[in-house]
Specification:
By secondary structure, the protein is α/β, with parallel strands linked by helices. It has one domain: 3-Layer(aba) Sandwich (Rossmann fold). The protein has six helices and seven strands, in the order E-H-E-H-E-H-E-E-E-H-H-E-H. The longest helix is centred in the C-terminal third of the chain and has 17 residues.
Amino acid sequence: MSSGKKILVVLGHPMTKSFCGGLADSYAKGATDAGHEVQQLNLGELDFEISLKSGYTERITLEPDLQRAQEMITWANHLVFVFPAWWNTGPAVLKGFIDRVFLPNFAFKYRSGSYKVDQLLAGRSARVIVTTDAPGWFYRRFMGGLGFKMMSNSVLRFCGVKPVRTTAIGSVKQSTPVQKKHWLEQMKQFGSKAS
């Protein structure tokens, strides 16, 4: 399919066998079935130091898994992040991944003498999918949807990725098997449209 996209699905849950993992797999299946090229990255399976121990003052060599992650991001023209809202944002492995991978001169570049940056990931779109124990509308309206704000505004749009669509899945804790099946089917639909 010549019009197919190159899609990278990033699972930000430390456990691959989780409901988030099922959502990521369903998205990937829908995309593959529709003729898109898909790669998946399960952060819990990567071997890397989660902490940026020296901040941005010292450049450290990326582990092979993170080098590969940067190659996959460069390859993709659509990024999908799936993760749970832990403490209203996301798991530590996701934040560590962002700190270690979305580096200056890869994801963005500082302009000399300016607070503005060059957005090095421009030309890509994204979807951010967050699961929550609260209903999706409650997570957005009353909890501020901080997982969306972190990934959509502070990371992806900052680096030039747009549009960034967001989906809240919840309440997972109170959901029935029928509801979970509906959400999995919804992910397949998103995947088939690469949206």
